[in-house]
Design goal:
Blueprint lengths: L1 H9 L4 E7 L5 E7 H4 L5 E4 L24 E6 L5 E2 L7 E9 L10 H14 L2 E15 L27 H5 L2 H13 L4 E6 L5 E6 L2 E2 H21 L2 E4 L13 E9 L16 H13 L4 H4 L21 E3 L6 E3 L9 E3 L8 H18 L22 H9 L2 H7 L1 H19 L4 H7 L4
Parallel strand pairs: 1-6, 13-14
Antiparallel strand pairs: 1-2, 3-4, 4-6, 5-6, 7-9, 7-10, 7-11, 7-12, 8-9, 12-15, 14-15
Helix pairs in contact: 3-9, 5-6, 7-9, 9-11, 10-12
Length: 444
């Protein structure tokens, strides 16, 4: 805390946002004066915040927390403290870990789940390296959820009406917005790299530089907040929904992942001769074996599964291949030290901590179990059958039956996550859609 206090004084910070990523990956927490933050004997919040659904409800099963809904203590991570660049007053934000009063970690905290998986890698002498790629749509403000989303108006005064993959001019339509995004990210020291226009109308993608998994999850968490805030300041929305618009592709969070030797920094995915190693192939095999059971972390919402569609820029099965964008697990052409696999299954609506934890957990299980992958696929994987769950309910059944993944991620966490998603699915199922009224009202 003394280090944080010095940081705050040096920058003249007057307020501090104490952030905790919840189960959906949204920021929860408290805001307080800086002088009070450094003198507080621990910030506290109820552990039950991790059990609240995206609709603000509570699951039927809350047995994973104390029946009295006791508080947990928030521990600031000094490595995450940053300025809030859009705040009127000089404000800092800091991400917190959560512990019980006896000092033990809160096992259902998403940030802890990622730490848990990284600890398993550390025990093997390994260090995962990841680089997320986040896609999102810019849309006109929509205050009535019954109305479909539409692209915003750009500098030309017109909306996009056709797909503009990799178009520089289409990105330039929103130059003032992206200038602010880059400025805000620079203030927060977020390691973003390239910006491209994706295939959807006003759909963008920003890539992160590769780095240690927890820091990349923290940065993705802060980046999503930054983009949404910046868009609002330009009188539009930014959405990370997996499939926000009919007739447009979905948005993904592709995860590039590799593993280094902790002592030497050597990429263990390549052998001494620079060829793909056995650990590399086992890592891919682990993804092939366990991603279906982990699908609820890559597609966490009922809307997520609308993205998993044939010929719609998202994988539908578990094939892998070299420089093949139709498969679930793509291996880019690279040097031996940069050898990696790109998990293309996750949507942009994921909790980045849980998506990274699940992806690394699947690869880890393949490595320690010595699994063997199928042969690399060279054709169009969209011509093959679906091999991924098609809805949230099916995903929850698969994770319940996968003991190895439960053991890696934590039994209490998986129980909590399942209870939340089951409640969300039931709430969604109660809604009667316009499709049902249009086609069933007078025809059945």
């Amino acid at each position: 805390m003394s280090e944080i206090e010095e940081w705050l004084k040096k920058r003249g910070v007057t307020e501090v946002e104490c952030l905790v990523p919840d189960m959906a990956g949204s920021p929860r927490g408290k805001i307080m004066p800086a002088h009070r933050f450094v003198r507080e004997e621990g910030v506290r919040m109820p552990e039950s915040l991790f059990l609240q659904t995206v609709t603000g409800e509570w699951p039927d099963d809350m047995s994973v927390i104390h029946p009295a809904e006791t508080d947990m203590e928030l521990v600031p991570d000094v490595d995450t403290i940053r300025l809030v660049p859009w705040a009127t007053d000089v404000t800092a934000q800091v991400i917190h870990d959560c512990i019980h009063h006896d000092g033990t970690p809160v096992e259902i905290s998403p940030r802890y789940v990622l730490r848990r998986v990284l600890k398993l890698y550390e025990e093997q002498g390994w260090q995962p390296i990841v680089a997320p790629e986040l896609e999102f749509f810019l849309v006109a403000k929509n205050v009535d959820p019954d109305y479909p989303l539409v692209p915003p108006v750009g500098r030309s005064g017109r909306q996009e009406t056709v797909r503009q993959s990799y178009s520089i001019d289409a990105v330039n339509e929103f130059d003032p917005l992206f200038d602010d995004i880059y400025d805000y990210c620079e203030v927060q020291e977020l390691d973003i790299d390239t910006l491209i226009h994706e295939s959807g109308a006003a759909q963008m993608e920003i890539n992160f530089l590769h780095g240690e998994a927890l820091s990349r999850a923290d940065q993705a968490f802060l980046f999503k907040r930054t983009v949404r805030e910046t868009a609002l300041r330009h009188d539009m929305y930014a959405t990370f929904m997996a499939k926000p618009m009919i007739g447009e592709p979905g948005s993904a969070m592709h995860i590039h992942q590799s593993v280094q030797d902790r002592e030497t920094g050597r990429n263990v995915f390549s052998n001494r001769q620079g060829k793909p190693s056995g650990l590399f192939l086992s890592h891919i095999a682990g993804l092939q074996r366990y991603v279906p059971a982990a699908m609820g972390f890559f597609a966490p919402n009922v809307n997520s599964y609308r993205r998993i569609a044939r010929h719609d820029a998202a994988p539908i099965n578990l094939k892998w291949g070299y420089d093949n964008r139709t498969v679930g697990f793509r291996v880019p052409i690279s040097s031996p030290q940069a050898r990696r696999v790109e998990n293309r299954v996750a949507g942009s609506d994921v909790n980045p901590y849980l998506a990274l934890a699940a992806s690394l957990a699947c690869g880890y299980l393949g490595m320690v179990q010595g699994l063997k992958p199928e042969k690399p696929f060279e054709g169009d994987a969209y011509d093959l059958d679906y091999a991924l769950p098609r809805n949230l309910d099916q995903s929850m059944v698969l994770i319940e039956e996968c003991e190895p993944l439960i053991e890696v991620l934590g039994e209490h966490f998986v129980q909590a996550y399942r209870s939340i998603k089951e409640r969300e699915y039931e709430t969604f199922f109660e809604v009667i859609s316009s499709w049902e009224r249009e086609f069933l009202l007078l025809n059945v």
